[in-house]
Amino acid sequence: MGRLAGKTAVILGAASEGNMGQVIARLFAKEGAKVMVSGRNEEPLAKLADEIGGHYALCDITDHGQVHGLASEAAAKMGRVDSAINASGWGLLSNLLDTSEEDLDKITALQFKGVHHFLQAFVAAMKDQTPQGGSIICLSSATTKALINNHAAYIGTKRAGEAMIECVANDFGQFGIKANTVSPAFTESPMTAESFQVPGLVDAFLPKYPLGRLNTCDDVANACLWLSSDEAFVTGQNIQPNGGLTLRGNPQAGDIEASVGAAMAKLQE
User: Fold this and answer.
1) CA torsion 155→161→167→171, rounded to 10°?
2) Range in 148-157, 188-197, 208-217 the model is least confident about
3) pLDDT tens-digit readout, 95-112
4) 147-151, 218-222, 253-257: least confidently modelled range
5) Distance CA 53, CA 122 (A)
6) How many angstroms separate the CA atoms of 24 and 97, rounded?
7) Average pLDDT over residues 70-88
8) SS3 string of the chain?
9) Which residues 6+ apart lie within 8 Å of 207 measured at CB?
10) Thinking of the domain 8-192+212-246, which architecture would CATH place it in?
């Protein structure tokens, strides 16, 4: 009997092969949940839904109507929504002085307004279902606690998402709704694949992890699994499944430059 047997879950941000949303979806299905995966690209969603025996729906989190439609469709197809997970995001790497208004609008739509749409839609769904309640999770980032250079817009909007989750936890706990954030650190995934090819980059990060390795997508998925299970009497918290990075902090630009420079020089010897 799986830890989520008889439960349902919606995972938004699962439309890229092997990303965190997809890893979470596979784990939840393995643990017995009926899962609806969602995002903007139909082909990978349909493939994943078929693989896990679930459902899929197209949804752009920046569109209010689409997000509310996703919550309604999930409830209609699966009977209720026990877990709703927002795994969408954009790791904008940009100096404060160089960030364009276009990029600022884009990341605000995705990581502030979009999160508000998501919370609004799924709080309403969980509040009105019988019996009431469920688990809402947004993926945030360890960078909101362990700052890294040139991520002001990214960190600012992720922190805003954490604040909204806390408000949901405070305002809607009376309806049995748990709301939490999960904060991975530098994780190997399709989104970071190019970064992992840079010589010396990973070496700059590794000493910052007391447990001796970078976190994986599986580590993040397991944190989401626990929060979505009946085992977790937890709400309004920011869970950090990243091996203790926040104890030491992220490397800064000078540290990264030195590590990459040393690795490049070694390759040229």
Assistant:
1) -170
2) 188-197
3) 999 999 999 999 999 999
4) 253-257
5) 22
6) 36
7) 98
8) CCCCCCCEEEEECCCCCCCHHHHHHHHHHHCCCEEEEEECCHHHHHHHHHHHCCEEEECCCCCHHHHHHHHHHHHHHHCCCCEEEECCCCCCCECHHHCCHHHHHHHHHHHHHHHHHHHHHHHHHHHHCCCCCEEEEEECCHHHCCCCCCEHHHHHHHHHHHHHHHHHHHHHHHHCEEEEEECCCCCCCHHHHHHHCCCCHHHHHHHHCCCCCCCCHHHHHHHHHHHHCCCCCCCCCEECCCCCHHHHCCCCHHHHHHHHHHHHHHHCC
9) 248
10) 3-Layer(aba) Sandwich (3.40)
Q: Where are the domains of the chain?
A: 8-192+212-246
Tens-place pLDDT, residues 102-144: 999 999 999 999 999 999 999 999 999 999 999 999 999 999 9
Quote the distance between the C-alpha of residue 235 and its chain's center: 16
- Beta carbons of 189 and 14 less than 8 angstroms apart: no
pLDDT (tens digit, 9 = 90+) per residue, 12-24? 999 999 899 999 9
Which amino acid is it at 176? G
Asked whether residue 214 carries a pLDDT value surpassing 80, the answer given is: yes
The torsion angle over the Cα atoms of residues 250, 252, 255 and 261, rounded to 10 degrees, is 110
Instruction: Tell me the mean pLDDT in the region 199-216.
Output: 93
C-alpha–C-alpha distance, residues 115 and 5, integer Å: 27
- pLDDT at residue 197, as a whole number: 77
Angle formed by the axes of helices 20-30 and 217-228, to 10°?
Answer: 50
pTM higher than the cut 0.85: yes
Q: Which of 113, 85, 121, 94 is nearest to 217 (CA)?
A: 85
CA–CA dist 266, 163 (Å, integer): 44
